[in-house]
Amino acid sequence: MGTFVQLVVDGLSTGSIYAALALAIVLVNQATGLINFAQGGMAVLSAYIAYSLLGAGLPLILAIGVAVLISFVLGAAIERLLIRRFERSETDTAIVVTIGLLTLLTGVSAWLWSYNNLQFPSLFPLASVDIFGAVVSVRSIGTTLTIVAIMILLQVLFRGTKLGLALRAVADNPASAAFSGLPVGRLLMVGWGFAAALGAIAGSLVAPQLTLTPGMLDNALVYALAAVILGGLNSPVGAVVAAWLIGVLENLAAVYVPFIGHDLKIAVPFVLIFVVLVIRPQGLFGRKVVARV
């Protein structure tokens, strides 16, 4: 029983890493209608900015706060100067641009800070607690609670505020939103800025659990995309629940299913996606899109 609880707890901790990035992907999709493959690179760059500010003598919480603000401006600038040129093109074109942006941001991070592993300090203590026989780090608990808080805030933003409703309107139909008097260009910039700021928070939460390198979130991005598809592109709650589900099922399958083991556990989320999408194409928490003709 102790082993099972430990596997579940470790899976939730790993799933929180995926969830942090998945929430940023959901945010930019809800605000712009795009899937941003560069989100991992933006999060890593933000973590490096926070690391440099720490080296300049700023306290950790202030360094992360300044990095979040810088990331917001950077995200808005990327939308205005780069992404906007492709927003009226085919969706596939814009997605390819974000993949290229990911490569660019990873290269810039490596050029400025090298590929050496750097230790990023944690916002939470390194102590551990015992929960039903499982050893859980306070850092994992703090990260998970932060992810839950962000999830709730995003849900409130998109469901209960005028800004969130305006962002969703622009993402669904920019032309119609413009005819309604919404400032489409500014809202798209705000959406990318929010996503970049959330990525900065995600990078600062994840970096202490991994090590800060340019490719720190490459693997996590794949799992985050899986969580977004599994949970639903328009559901912050779905993205987080799916990320936790992936983390837990991966761990359990690696230990309790002999032919999978640790080598094949990476296939678990993709088998799960296949099964879920056959039953619910919109994802576990997604909404069906109804087209009126």
Short recap of the structure:
InterPro entries: ABC_transp_permease, BCAA_transport_permease. The protein is an all-alpha fold.
**Beta-strand proportion:** under 5%
Total of DSSP H or I helical runs spanning 4+ residues: 11
The biggest beta sheet, please?
Answer: 2 strands, antiparallel
Give the SSE string: HHHHEEHHHHHHH
| Tally of domains | 1
Rg computed from alpha carbons, rounded to a whole number of angstroms? 19 Å
What is the residue-mean pLDDT, rounded to a whole number?
84
**Uncertain stretches of 5 or more adjacent residues:** none
Structural class: mainly alpha
> Largest sheet, order of strands side by side?
1-2
- Record field, number of beta strands: 2
Shape, per Cα inertia axes = globular
Provide the helix percentage.
55-70%
Assembly level: single chain
Main location: membrane
InterPro entries: ABC_transp_permease, BCAA_transport_permease
Pfam family, one: BPD_transp_2
Subcellular location: Cell membrane
Written overview of the protein:
Helices cover 69% and strands 3% of the residues. It has helices at 2-32, 39-55, 60-81, 91-113, 138-160, 162-172, 174-179, 184-206, 218-231, 236-256, 268-279; strands at residues 128-131, 134-137. A two-stranded antiparallel ribbon has the order 1-2. The termini are far apart. It is found in: Cell membrane. Belongs to the binding-protein-dependent transport system permease family. LivHM subfamily. It holds the Pfam family BPD_transp_2.
